[in-house]
Amino acid sequence: MNSATQLSLRLTGKQHSRIRDHLYPGDGFEAVALLLCGHRNGSARTALTVHEVFEIPHESCVRSEDRVQWPMELAVPLLEKAMGKGLSIVKVHSHPGGYSEFSPVDDLSDQELFESLKSWTGDLPNGSLVMLPDGVMFGRVSSNAGFQNLHRISVAGDRIRVFGIEEAIVREQELRTAQAFGAGTVSLLRRLKIGVVGCSGTGSWVCELLGRHGVGELVFVDPDVVELKNLNRIPNATREDALAGVSKVEVQKRAVEAMGFSTLVSTYASDLMNVEVVEALADCDIVFGCMDSHDGRDLLNRIAVFYNIPYFDIGVSLHSDGEGGVTHVVGRVNYLQPDGSSLLSRKHVSAELIDAQSCLRRNPDEYEARRGEGYVANAHVESPAVAGVNSLYASLAVNECLARLHGYRDDDRHDEICICQVNTYMQTIRHELPCPRLAKRAGRGDCLPLLDIPQLAELCVT
């Protein structure tokens, strides 16, 4: 592993709570658990993604206030699973006294553990974490040089927590944001990498708002170019862009770079069914979905699940008679946690339209034949879109993200916000049940085929 590579670990809110409950049972003694982890092996970033939590029973350990000893044989079933699936092992233990560094006892224990794990996991990185009483975590992984510290540990829960971010000096262009949310949140935003998929109606406003908040890195994904019909709703797009057929992602990159926040912007004029795009999004800390298509939204949901990434999805529905009669204006912001409910289990995407739109993208001729025979649904979904409506829901999504990062709300226990502009109401909804199709894949990470999708079977994970 390159020592210059940024190392991180990602876990879900449910996993974090489960670990904390086990490590801090209330008796003041250290405890230990093991984590089975997938990987995201990027060129500049490597992430360990927690897939399973395995608690070492308290009664099987020798525990005291400053150390814990546990029998390695208890971990054999987990080690066999790690070896069979190419996964890593991470040990996590508690420091009940709040000691915020690895102790000399920890150093010796980790050296022995990492050496023992090599026979099971080979050259894969294994890790060691400490959780403090307030839930804060720090950690390191094995390397050729001994130990390499994790740059950050992130938790995708009701709150989005990121440990390991040092507070930075607030720049002049960030003063107003710092006055609202504090220097800590400004520093965090500057070090986040956020993906936006769909850079048209709602997505263009999300790009604008994230850029204005000084996010450090942005990834923009959209296959389309600007057209004259887009100019009523895409900020920063011009008539010249439409006539020249400039890609939507390049328009947003140009605008963000002109803001002067030194934001790094990567663009992909492509749809999601592309290995390079999937890998770029897998490197992100947060993703926003601003798409109409059911198959695209379902695929982004899948990426977020496999790599333990918080996902904000925006959906807008506007019905009119074409002559000024508006009958329906509803927008929803869905927040999706990796091991929770999905857009499919919430019934915001349908399996029928996922299949139809996927068929249309892969093979238009086959789609038309199947549609003519009545085997697939109409995949062409398009509705009116205007700037005032789209910007409202885009702003709602970005503010939802800021609230979960900063933690200023009294209660974050909702997963969906719905605003109806015809009947003028706002509703928050909690979705308790995990998705039976996706939740079990949380933290699986890189695998072949990529995302367990057969269409990507012939493409290798880098």
From TrEMBL:
<keyword id="KW-0548">Nucleotidyltransferase</keyword>
<dbReference type="InterPro" id="IPR035985">
    <property type="entry name" value="Ubiquitin-activating_enz"/>
</dbReference>
<feature type="domain" description="THIF-type NAD/FAD binding fold">
    <location>
        <begin position="179"/>
        <end position="415"/>
    </location>
</feature>
<dbReference type="InterPro" id="IPR045886">
    <property type="entry name" value="ThiF/MoeB/HesA"/>
</dbReference>
<keyword id="KW-0808">Transferase</keyword>
<dbReference type="GO" id="GO:0061503">
    <property type="term" value="F:tRNA threonylcarbamoyladenosine dehydratase"/>
</dbReference>
<dbReference type="GO" id="GO:0061504">
    <property type="term" value="P:cyclic threonylcarbamoyladenosine biosynthetic process"/>
</dbReference>
<protein>
    <submittedName>
        <fullName>ThiF family adenylyltransferase</fullName>
    </submittedName>
</protein>
<dbReference type="InterPro" id="IPR000594">
    <property type="entry name" value="ThiF_NAD_FAD-bd"/>
</dbReference>
<dbReference type="Pfam" id="PF00899">
    <property type="entry name" value="ThiF"/>
</dbReference>
<dbReference type="GO" id="GO:0008641">
    <property type="term" value="F:ubiquitin-like modifier activating enzyme activity"/>
</dbReference>
<dbReference type="GO" id="GO:0016779">
    <property type="term" value="F:nucleotidyltransferase activity"/>
</dbReference>
